[in-house]
Amino acid sequence: MKGKVVNNLMLNDKYYLMEIESEDFVNKAKPGHFMMVKAQQYDYLYDPLLRRPFGVCDIERGRFKILYVLIGKGTNLLSQIKTGSQIEFSEPLGNTFKFNNEKTVALVGGGVGIAPLLFLAKYLHNQDVLVDLYYGGKTEDDILLIDEFKKYCQHIEVTTENGKVGKKGIVTSPLSENIKKYEKIYACGPKRMLQATSTLAINHNIPIEVSLDERMACGMGACLGCLVYVKNDQGEIEQKRCCVEGPVFDGARIVWE
Ligand SMILES: Cc1cc2nc3c(=O)[nH]c(=O)nc-3n(C[C@H](O)[C@H](O)[C@H](O)COP(=O)(O)OP(=O)(O)OC[C@H]3O[C@@H](n4cnc5c(N)ncnc54)[C@H](O)[C@@H]3O)c2cc1C
Ligand code: FES
Questions:
Q1: Virtual CA dihedral for 186, 191, 196, 197, nearest 10 degrees?
Q2: Are 188 and 116 a contacting pair, CB within 8 Å?
Q3: Is 55 touching ligand 1 by the criterion CB < 6 Å?
Q4: What's the CA gap between 39 and 24, in Å, rounded?
Q5: 216 CA: nearest ligand 2 atom
Q6: Which of 17, 19, 51, 94 has its CA at a distance of 20 to 30 angstroms from the CA of residue 234?
Q7: pLDDT averaged over every residue in the chain
Q8: Residues in Cβ contact with 206 at an 8 Å cutoff, skipping those fewer than 6 apart
Q9: Residue 190 phi, psi dihedral angles, 5° rounding
Q10: Is the CB of residue 105 below 6 angstroms from any atom belonging to ligand 2?
């Protein structure tokens, strides 16, 4: 698929928000989906060869957004793409978050893991679900899009490790105080945060879905580079491809180590 970059906004030294016009993509995308983006600056270059995976952060009127953090070659090239340029990306890939008419849910995000949760918050809000957000970052620079989340969330708890924004500490602390309120938890962020959140959910018997950011090469199920280990109904460990059977998994079934 191809689309026009209508905005590539620098939010701070680390984060960018790119908005892309593509009616076709928007019509297919559901909360939880990701896409593989071509980060080559010119069509005649093949470097970097591999496309980069990003979650769908938001969709609106024929446009979708990706929130990305600068890591290496691919994301640095993305940050240089000018408004008006054409960009290439895959169809929406992977599975999606599941929703079973729960009335009160918690979203738990860490750093750029917040990206797919905005699209999910909007979707759940439109289904009349009461959504609370628990958002953790290392510093104030990692806390983004709060005004957007306010449109869809009843209550927002922010934590940072330095305490400059929100409460000082980690996001599982405020979550643990309120956890009994929730019928379901959705989380995305660093693995340690996802593991701690899943443990809390299991201990309180609350269903939890987590979206994993495994390193990906093909994004299509062919290279087996993104394997995740999960327990089946019999408690046996199975291998799943994060790009096809994920990126969303039952947090209670993941083998974290
Ligand atoms: C399903 C999914 C959704 C994601 N959503 C987002 C998002 O919304 N926003 C965002 O900023 N990042 C997201 N990521 C992580 C993002 O793909 C990497 O940060 C990005 O690919 C780094 O590319 P790079 O060239 O800058 O870094 P480099 O380190 O130079 O990349 C080298 C290779 O490793 C892969 N890679 C590096 N880090 C990761 C990672 N954490 N996950 C997967 N592959 C990685 C790259 O794709 C590339 O093939 C997501 C990852 C996955 C799997
Ligand atoms: S990235 Fe190739 S199988 Fe998942």
A1: 0
A2: yes
A3: yes
A4: 20
A5: 1
A6: 94
A7: 96
A8: 179, 182, 183, 184, 185
A9: -60, 150
A10: no
**Ligand 1 lined by 68 (C-beta under 6 Å):** yes
Tens of pLDDT, residues 72-128: 999 999 999 999 999 999 999 999 999 999 999 999 999 999 999 999 999 999 999
Alpha helices, DSSP H, located in the chain: 23-28, 73-79, 115-126, 146-150, 172-178, 191-203
227 C-alpha to center of ligand 2: Å? 8
Indicate which atom in ligand 2 lies nearest the CA of residue 53. Answer: 1
Task: Assess whether the C-beta atom of 222 lies below 6 angstroms from ligand 2.
Answer: yes
Q: Whose CA is nearest to atom 11 of ligand 1?
A: 68
pTM for this entry = 0.96
CB count in 10 Å sphere of residue 76: 11
Calculate the CA 26 to chain-centre distance.
17
Nearest CA to ligand 1 atom 21: 52
* Ligand 1 atom with the shortest distance to the CA of 216: 44
Give me the amino acid identity at 244. V
Report the distance separating Cα 94 and Cα 114, nearest Å.
Answer: 18
Q: Which two tokens stand for residue 34?
A: 């990701």
CA 182 / ligand 2 centre spacing (Å): 33
Residue 48 is predicted with a pLDDT of: 85
The rounded distance, in Å, linking the Cα atoms of 29 and 218 is 19
145 CB less than 6 Å from ligand 2?
Answer: no
